[in-house]
Design goal:
alpha/beta, Rossmann fold, 9-stranded mixed sheet, 14 helices, disordered N terminus, triacylglycerol lipase activity, Lipase, Lipase_secreted, signal
Length: 408
């Protein structure tokens, strides 16, 4: 409860979008690092259409976790972004700045896209706390992001649509994730444009790996005023994404890890496409798990689920709309426009390394610049743990223009 109150306070006490403020420049609004005045949430939601995507709505200075050795400042933010259909929404996230002053040309930017945490507001990474439901994953993330701060990059990390802010989270929706990541970079520039370079890189893990690939395909077109240099996909999900639904449909005894994960897939699809009524598709046993997933995070579902519901779907469930929607989010339909690096563990039980390898080969056949790093016997989080080493090599290759010859 303490963290929930802190989370709500972050949103309601810091938001600013009163009519008297609309129209002020970013310089006038954000000249000082202060918490913005209180504003009514519904009023905020109704007025953000007047602002450009990426407009900063709130900024709150926070203490820096001890896991960061190279961070100078950390802020929790809200910003104006776009939802599944391009509609104006409020999205939250956090900023990490390196120690010291920004260089003359500004800090280059890393946009971080996080992995699966759940669909409940308590699963938003910007509200992480010691002992919280996303803290174990966040500690691994911290190590990866700190290496970027050490290199002199500013980090912007979105929570995604509906995580920590009004509305449901459209988990794995490609359009929403592109908008949320791109607009988070814009938010940095709307806050202090002279402190940040136009050059940016996107990196994501798992769900965020799919987001990074989607940004690699659409990000430069969506934000031509910025300079997207490259994308890094760590154990990316989303290859033949409809396959997970087909698996639980045909397997009478699914693995408990899959069963704990699947409600997030269903709820995300329903959030993106309200015509998909997931409550009408699932069995009574699965309905109980689905209800739990609306208020619990993935780590909690994995810990608490002892046996998978049998069956997952009702016998007469019409899955065609669901399967069609999931297929449209699959990464194999995305064609990157910037150099792309993959890092994937060969013993990953959540993202099959063969799927990542297949997509990499697809990218190479299209003669696009890409590089693939396999981690022998690496699990799902090892892609994160090993990313600093491979990132250093990748950035050096980008500087020397040798990435175009990386495909094998």
């Amino acid at each position: 409860m303490l963290n929930q109150r802190k989370h709500l306070s972050k949103f309601s006490s810091a938001l600013v979008i009163a009519g008297s403020i609309v129209g002020l420049s970013a310089t006038e609004l954000y000249a000082a690092d202060t918490v913005m005045p209180k504003a009514n949430i519904s009023q905020t939601q109704n007025n953000i259409a007047a602002l450009l995507p990426g407009s900063m709505l709130s900024l709150q200075l926070e203490s820096i976790p001890t896991s960061y050795q190279h961070a100078g400042q950390r802020y929790v933010i809200t910003y104006r972004s776009r939802g599944v259909n391009g509609e104006p929404i409020v999205t939250s996230g956090y900023i990490l700045l390196p120690k010291g002053q920004a260089p003359k040309q500004g800090w280059p930017v890393l946009a971080w896209a996080h992995g699966t945490t759940g669909v409940a507001d308590t699963c938003a990474p910007s509200s992480d706390y010691a002992g919280g439901p996303v803290h174990s994953l966040q500690e691994v993330i911290d190590g990866a992001l700190d290496s970027w701060l050490m290199r002199g990059y500013a980090v912007i990390a979105t929570d995604y649509q509906g995580l920590g802010t009004p509305g449901m989270h459209p988990y794995m929706n490609a359009a929403s994730q592109v908008y949320n990541v791109v607009d988070s970079v814009r938010a940095l520039h709307s806050w202090k444009p002279k402190q940040f370079s136009k050059d940016w890189v996107v990196m994501g893990h798992s769900q965020g790996g799919a987001a990074a690939i989607a940004v690699a395909a659409q990000g430069q077109k969506d934000a031509p005023e910025l300079n997207l240099k490259a994308a890094i996909a760590l154990a990316p999900g989303g290859y033949q994404y409809e396959g997970i639904a087909e698996y639980v449909q045909t397997n009478p005894n699914p693995d408990t890890n899959v069963a704990a994960f699947f409600p997030i897939v269903l709820l995300g699809a329903a959030a993106a496409d309200p015509s998909i009524n997931v409550d009408q598709l699932v069995s009574p046993d699965m309905q109980s798990l689905l209800n739990q997933a609306r208020k619990r995070c993935l780590s909690e579902l994995q810990t608490e689920l002892e046996q998978a519901p049998q069956p997952i779907f009702k016998k007469d469930a019409d899955l065609k709309p669901l399967l069609s929607y999931l297929k449209r989010q699959s990464i194999e339909y995305m064609k990157p426009t910037v150099p792309l690096m993959f890092v994937q563990g060969t013993a990953d039980h959540l993202v099959d390394h063969r799927d990542t390898q297949s997509y990499y080969q697809q990218v190479c056949k299209q003669k696009l610049p890409a590089v693939y790093h396999a981690i022998p016997n690496g699990d799902h989080r090892d892609a994160l743990r090993h990313s600093p080493k491979y990132t250093a090599e990748f950035l050096k290759s980008l500087e020397h223009g040798s990435i175009a010859k990386a495909c094998k």
